[in-house]
Amino acid sequence: MRTQEEIFQAKIDAEIKIEPKDWMPEKYRKTLIRQISQHAHSEIVGMLPEGNWLTRAPNLRRKVALLAKVQDEAGHGLYLYSAAETLGAERDQLTRDLLSGKAKYSSIFNYPTLTWADIGAIGWLVDGAAIMNQVMLCRTSYGPYARAMVRICKEESFHQRQGYEIMLTLANGTPEQKEMAQDALNRWWWPSLMMFGPSDKESTNTAQSVKWKIKRKTNDELRQQFVDISVEQAEFLDLKIPDPQLKWNKKTNHYDFGPIDWDEFWSVVKGNGPCNKQRLKDRNKAYDEGTWVREAAMAYAEKQDAKKEKAA
Ligand code: 3HC
Fold first, then answer.
1. C-beta of 107 in contact with ligand 1 (< 6 A)
2. What ligand 1 atom has the least distance to the C-alpha of 203?
3. Residue 148 CB less than 6 A away from ligand 1
4. Which of 42, 116, 169, 227 has the fewest CB atoms within 10 Å around its CB?
5. If you measure from the C-alpha of residue 305 to the centroid of ligand 1, how many angstroms do you get, rounded to a whole number?
6. Phi, psi of 214 (to 5 degrees)
7. Is the pLDDT of residue 52 over 90?
8. Contact between 48 and 113 (Cβ < 8 Å)
9. What is the dihedral sign for C-alpha 106, 112, 118, 119?
10. Is 50 near ligand 1, meaning CB less than 6 Å away?
11. What is the pLDDT of residues 145-155, one digit of tens each?
12. DSSP β-ladder status, 254-256 and 247-249
């Protein structure tokens, strides 16, 4: 007689999606809530660095595109919090964990956006890296997460294209504009590689997540895929990737690249990045200032419920 774990793993191996009402190992549920909630927090916090440039966009077209992107990110956060709730997570608790600094979100959002070119580099590299990861997650074993990814990836492609177009405009602009684009690439390249997580040998979750098909590719595999694609995109921009060890390897058919500064990575993950404190402060301020919206929405919902009860 097969155990529940064996039946569960057989479903995973047979590519049967796991749905909210299906039996699942507690550890599967827990790691999904961990990953999906961090993903959702990343979407919400990710709006902050870009929000900084909404009032400074160089023209109306750029402003409209950036506004649309920032609004999309809020929607991505909502889909993902909803996906986490299907696993029994409480959205209020997830929010409290973020606001208190207890919850993780992607390290990348703890870096400053110093010039307009940073908005281009974020779209090109950060959303590009996110797409690399999220296209893979469209095939994740948990149904609601996979379905949320399909919609998110469609919007991320626009985010990446608008960012790359900003970089192309600057790279083909005046020498000062090209220098601004190169400076942004210099500052965002390595933190973008860190987005994929620690190396496979350091990763505490990857092996099990691959077995459960939460992840279809490992951190290093996705990182390598991202480097290979980005090198050619940088060449098209005539910008130089800040890695003297970057070199095409004929044997592996991939680009070899230099060592990642994992001390920097873990320092940022642990809350000591350039903007961690600012991001949390801004997020708490936004939450406090939004209290009236939440209260009004709850009051309206209670009124509607009372009306339905009366009518019943
Ligand atoms: N930033 C912060 N923490 C990170 C991290 C990063 N870039 N990479 C890894 N970590 C943390 C993990 O959360 C884990 O800590 P925990 O066990 O306390 O949660 C620890 O470091 C070890 O890492 P693992 O590789 O073992 O962890 P995972 O198996 O969870 O892999 C991941 C990390 C690849 C980021 C995976 O969680 C994932 O694919 N998440 C979904 C995608 C996501 O969250 N992307 C973030 C960016 S979203 C975004 O960019 C929005 C876009 O619109 C711009």
1. yes
2. 26
3. no
4. 169
5. 39
6. -70, -45
7. no
8. no
9. positive
10. no
11. 999 999 899 89
12. antiparallel
Q: Ligand 1 in contact with 128 (CB < 6 A)?
A: no
**Cβ(278) – ligand 1 distance below 6 Å:** no
């001390």: which residue's tokens? Answer: 263
Which residue owns the Cα nearest ligand 1 atom 54?
Answer: 127
pLDDT attached to residue 312? 86
Question: 């419920």: which residue's tokens?
Answer: 305
Average pLDDT over residues 82-106: 97
pTM score, whole prediction: 0.96
Q: What is the pLDDT of residues 111-143, one digit of tens each?
A: 999 999 999 999 999 999 999 999 999 999 999
Most informative mutation of 28, 45, 106 for ligand 1 (most atoms within 8 A of CB): 106
What integer is the mean pLDDT of 259-288?
97
Q: What tokens does 177 get?
A: 């504009």
pLDDT digits (tens, 9 = 90+) for 245-266: 999 999 999 999 999 999 999 9
| Residue having the nearest C-alpha atom to atom 31 of ligand 1 | 197
Residue 195 Cβ inside 6 Å of ligand 1? The answer reads yes
**Quick one: which atom of ligand 1 is closest to the CA of 38?**
44
What CA–CA distance (Å, rounded) separates 18 from 220? 26
Rounded to whole angstroms, how far apart are CA atoms 216 and 211? 9
Neighbours of 271 (CB within 10 A): 12
Secondary structure element (H or E) that encloses residue 264, with its range: helix 262-267
75 bridge partner residues: none
Q: How many CB atoms lie within 10 A of CB 177?
A: 16
